């Protein structure tokens, strides 16, 4: 039997001994629900004793119908075991989650992203600021109750020489379309159509009428004006020639030199 070269996946931890109040989730992936107060101890145990060395991602999820509407998901990777693990922690809008920057310094940026998108606080993060939105941005875009158009819009004010924030104002209202072809006749009139004369029912179209009249009495094409052959015959050349002739008549003619008289 030929040996397989596919990577071998280690079995998931049957029990997380020493992880206080950790509950395994039902499903295909390996995921555990952990209390906020036990988060740092659980992640430290997974890193040091169960060989989950890397923190790959910190994701946020919003469930508005829950008392603790936010879930913070920590995605761990074990290089030696070739296995992934997810740790879920729930919280509300006021209660912060303990920061894990002491375990993985990269968590500082990941926690800032969750804070910027969902408004979840992280106690112990040394630099908890917005990272994806602007400094004066209001609200949290990834919350389910955040409107698609946002609360404010920004533009550069030439008068104030800075970026200003204003309430959102849509450029046009949402319209309903009838999906009719323009040549089939729509039920509305476009701007400018009020000057057009409405056609009577059964009247021939102007395109067909023009085609029939042209076939009975075709128009002779307009004669093309003959162009000049020389640049001097053009309007600019003719004016220049007249000016040169006029100048030559007005200027005094030079006298021819006299011949010396010969001796008799």
Overview of this protein structure:
The chain has 264 residues and is of the alpha/beta class. It has a domain at 23-123: Beta Polymerase, domain 2 (2-Layer Sandwich). Helix content is 19%, strand content 18%. The chain has 4 helices and 9 strands; from the N terminus they run ββαββββαβββαα. It has a 5-stranded mixed beta sheet. Strands 6-7 form a two-stranded parallel ribbon. A two-stranded antiparallel ribbon has the order 8-9. The longest helix is centred in the C-terminal third of the chain and has 16 residues, at 235-250.
**In DSSP terms, counting alpha (H) and pi (I) runs of 4 or more, how many helices?**
4
Overall pLDDT metric: 76
The CATH architecture designation of the domain at 23-123 is 2-Layer Sandwich
Give the topology string: H per helix, E per strand. Answer: EEHEEEEHEEEHH
Low-pLDDT segments: 208-216
CATH class of the domain at 23-123: Alpha Beta
Number of strands: 9
> How would you write the strand order of the largest sheet?
1-2-5-4-3
Determine the CATH topology of the domain at 23-123: Beta Polymerase, domain 2
Radius of gyration: 43 Å
Task: Give the secondary structure arrangement, pairings included.
Blueprint (H helix, E strand, L loop, with lengths): L22 E2 L6 E3 L5 H10 L5 E9 L7 E9 L4 E9 L5 E2 L8 H12 L3 E2 L28 E6 L4 E6 L38 H11 L18 H16 L14
Parallel strand pairs: 2-5, 6-7
Antiparallel strand pairs: 1-2, 3-4, 4-5, 8-9
Which structural traits does this protein have?
264 residues, alpha/beta, Beta Polymerase, domain 2, five-stranded mixed β-sheet, two-stranded parallel sheet, 4 helices, 9 strands, elongated
């Amino acid at each position: 039997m030929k040996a397989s070269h596919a990577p071998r996946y280690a079995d998931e931890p049957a029990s997380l001994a020493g992880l206080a109040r950790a509950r395994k989730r039902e499903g295909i992936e390996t995921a555990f629900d952990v209390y906020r107060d036990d988060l740092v101890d659980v992640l430290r145990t997974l890193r040091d004793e169960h060989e989950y060395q890397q923190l790959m991602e910190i994701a946020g999820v919003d469930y508005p119908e829950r008392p603790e509407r936010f879930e913070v998901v920590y995605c761990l990777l074990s290089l030696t075991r070739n296995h992934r693990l997810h740790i879920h922690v729930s919280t509300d809008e006021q209660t912060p989650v303990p920061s894990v920057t002491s375990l993985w310094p990269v968590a500082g940026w990941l926690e800032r992203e969750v804070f910027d998108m969902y408004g979840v606080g992280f106690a112990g993060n040394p630099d908890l600021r917005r990272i994806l939105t602007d400094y004066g941005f209001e609200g949290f875009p990834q919350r389910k109750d955040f409107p698609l158009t946002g609360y404010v819009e920004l533009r550069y004010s030439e008068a104030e020489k800075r970026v200003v924030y204003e309430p959102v104002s849509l450029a046009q209202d949402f319209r309903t379309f009838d999906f009719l072809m323009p040549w089939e006749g729509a039920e509305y009139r476009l701007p400018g159509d009020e000057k057009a004369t409405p056609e009577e029912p059964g009247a021939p179209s102007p395109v067909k009428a023009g085609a029939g009249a042209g076939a009975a009495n075709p128009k002779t094409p307009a004669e093309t004006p003959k162009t000049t052959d020389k640049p001097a015959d053009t309007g600019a050349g003719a004016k220049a020639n007249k000016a040169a002739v006029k100048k030559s008549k007005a200027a005094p003619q030079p006298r021819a030199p006299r011949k010396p008289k010969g001796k008799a």
